[in-house]
Amino acid sequence: MEPNDKELRQQLSRGPLSRNGFDDRLRKRIEDALDRPTRRPSFFARVGWNGAGVAAILGLLLAFGIWQWTVPGPSAERFAEDPAMQTATTQDAKLFSDANAQIRSVLLLGLREDREDQGNVVSSYRTLMIAPQDGQFAVTASGDGIVMPYKQNFWKIEAVTSGDKGTLSQTLKAYQANGKGAVTPAQAEAIPVSDVGMVERLTFVGNRYVSVVQNRVSAPNAQFRWVKHIEQLAADASRVSYEPTAESHVMLEDVLKAGDTATPSVQAHTEQWSIIRRTGNWTAAAEEAKDGKGATDAFAPFDNEALVELSAPLPDEYKNYDTLSISWSQIRKIVPQAEDAFTSPNEDMLAVVTGDQILVYPYQQLNGRDHPLSIRLADGETVVMAQWTSNIKYVDNWKKQVAAILNPTPETQLQ
């Protein structure tokens, strides 16, 4: 009989974990998996990993020596002396305990707020810069639209709404906002955007790439999903008509071939796919393959229920830094209502998403738990971008450049 989560936790607590290679790192990974909220099964899980995968995992655990654990386990003295059994307590003790901890990370956070208009979803966006200020984290700049770092500069994405009430359409436009080749705010305002009876919104922004959901105004439930380069998004704003087969995009197969892992057996000609947020990470998702589906269906719309996660991880060039440096059990001890979280590459910032706010902690800093930065979220507002700079030499540049884009002054507009 396969053990459930409760039985696995009991096994994990019974004895030394360093036997036959079952070390503290593996224990932490198992605990994290047990703590992580349940997700909808991936497509690959649905097509054959339900039983075989579990059996394989249990076989590996047996190989690592779980079978050697004894009941009732080690004595209290041995438990106290075992470093592996003390790990969780030690890790918890390290949080908010360093009197000399320095904070030096900057987080660019992109948020999307939706409202419904005659069955269509119309969105607004804002960007927040969270950066060190007077020894604490603070929102040092904020403004409408999404400001994303790309190469050595920043680009801005704006939602342009047109049409009458009841027939609103919305198109995304993008442009380089600073550096050589940047457009001025006046030039950005004059960028032509065509009203083609279509609504589109962002699900993800990162590095060079964006994930977009589109639908015709007349068919709000028939959705099209694309991943594009930021340059493709910029060029598509001037489309003269909406034809899904003409939308520029990046195919899923091309993305996975560029990664470090082997390409899984995804549906051939996967033109449409998304990058979406699941608790703790960004993940690729696509339409669930159906028997007999051919390449001619690659540009057909589908609904949300057909969207399933893929098991293959995204290459780093798509999602940038996307790693939690502390476990979900630790995060929930800090914020029991946590629904999602982000940690910085420097391991000095923890941003925890709850239902109505984001709480930002300097989680190494002594007493850093006492006064988190609180960012109020609008009803249903979601994170579509989390971009970091961890290099101290870029912190001031990011703060100045992003502030000039989000809150331009006459002086910065002349630069």
Automatic annotation (TrEMBL):
The chain crosses the membrane at residues 47-69. Keywords: Membrane, Transmembrane, Transmembrane helix. Residues 1-21 are annotated as: Disordered. This is Uncharacterized protein.
